[in-house]
Amino acid sequence: MTVLVRDFLPTDAAAWARVGHAAMPYLVTVPEQAVFDLACAHPDEHRRLLVAEEDGEIVAIARTGLVHESPEPGQAFCDPYTHPDRTGRGAGGLLLRTAEEHLAREGARAVYSWVLDTPSNRAFAERRGYAPSRSAHFLRLDLAGGPLPPLPSLPADAELRTGADFADDPRPLFVADAEATADEPSDTPAELDDYEDWLRRTWRHPALDHELTSVVVVDGEVASFTAARTDGGTRYMSGMTGTVRAHRGRGLAKLAKADSLHRARAAGYTDAYTGNDADNGPMLAVNRWFGYEICATEVRHVRELG
Questions:
Q1: How far apart are the C-alpha atoms of 226 and 212, rounded to whole Å?
Q2: DSSP class of residue 285?
């Protein structure tokens, strides 16, 4: 059996989502997502979506490109995923090698990749010259299995809104997202300074649910938010939760997440997922308070390109 690697085509969308969901069930993956991500990629990212075929069947996928938001040039990423029933046939290694060649041509100096914390996945990365760095957890909450903690009290100077309330002018959410992202633990820190790019890639993302995105506004300004991604069926995921610096320590992130989760359950979502950097103690504590439990861990690996 021969494995071939090629670029993603729009007609691959359903197969891309099928492989992605099987390999990473902790993420919300919708068929429209790959087409959208490729169409809206920033030119400086040099993004490619790759698929590996075995006898005409897509068995593995990979996203790769430069981290164009990083203040340090030459940072790149590659995340290959192989369907669990098709591992050990060379698809993942071929995808990774193709991606590295592409990134080297575009001036990448270091390639970062998230690797599930299992012996086989870590061995795959280490055999190819990748060294482990920071860890992150996936957490799951059974929205259908029991009561949620009650909604925290709303401070007198605050009000709850949804992302949909900012449809005419989402810039205040961009400003809050940029500040929260700048302080997020990461090997490849990002600076969000392109509003139009944020509109294209984040605000208009097909999985972003504006109605279930909760926003805490204090004295008329966005203070905290949690961005909700959904698959339109049963799966809900917290895409990003953040609080601006001036309002941290007031429990506003917990309030935003609680509001979104309560409304997600009322809308019929049964499986809630989120992700946390392993060193982000405050958010891990918030998620434990809701009843989230760690369901998987991944380790960021890096390889320096010669």
A1: 9
A2: H
